């Protein structure tokens, strides 16, 4: 039974080379900067080419997986051909990504790079699985890895597509920023709901994860909120809700007024997305510090950090093209709400300083 193994291993040799080549492509994608492009850049042509290269990659993954799913195994010659096709498909994906110039916007570029990286990672995973699988058997891992490549390749059709009512709209930086803001809003909404749920009057924040016998006496100060804690935390909840409102309003403004028609507008959209990205981690840090035992100074510090991020988001949005005079009302209102809640947090923690 061992006699066939060396030949089988040898047949898979080209796959090892391809795996090495794909890892090099991945490393370059992770650190590399796309070029400025020598010819005039056309967004529709770019999306069309990207979609095609993702489709070809998906087909090559299927061919490779099928070839190694049942006996007889492909000959060394066939394996070389399959490996070459896989490598060419991945190089084509990377090449098209490199067409996308910086000037189109960093948010859009990051989205395309993430999708491209996922496809390359999926293909590396598939070659790994085939190289490590017992000869001539289709493993569960191989099925999962193949599905992983398909899924990654389908991502391109899920990338933001510009105005949804226009089937021919191609994703630009405005669509990418809308998509990024919507993702941030989803995460912040979840965090606010979770904290509201935990703060329900009389509810033990650790009730679902700690048994009584583990802690012994339930009057342990470390596991519940005092009345003073609850007062401080209600102001923190005010800040968390202001975060949600900020993201909602900025998202609506970018949808309504955001444009990717000039370098200045594209850069302003990126600035909005970059600072809005800081909201969710700041909300998380504040939420974590709100669990008992509450250290009022840590809460104050995290609240101040979140308040400063929110003020910055509002300031950057207000001075950009996404906030014409018609939008100034809510910017003012939310700035006031952030200050109001932050001042309450300061008052509640004043004695701790």
From TrEMBL:
The keyword Electron transport does not apply. Belongs to the CCNDBP1 family. It is found in: Cytoplasm; Nucleus. It comes from the Eukaryota. Residues 211-315 form the Cyclin-D1-binding protein 1-like C-terminal domain. Residues 50-199 form the Cyclin-D1-binding protein 1-like N-terminal domain. The keyword Amino-acid biosynthesis does not apply. Its main location: cytoplasm. This is CCDB1 protein. Keywords: Cell cycle, Cytoplasm, Nucleus.
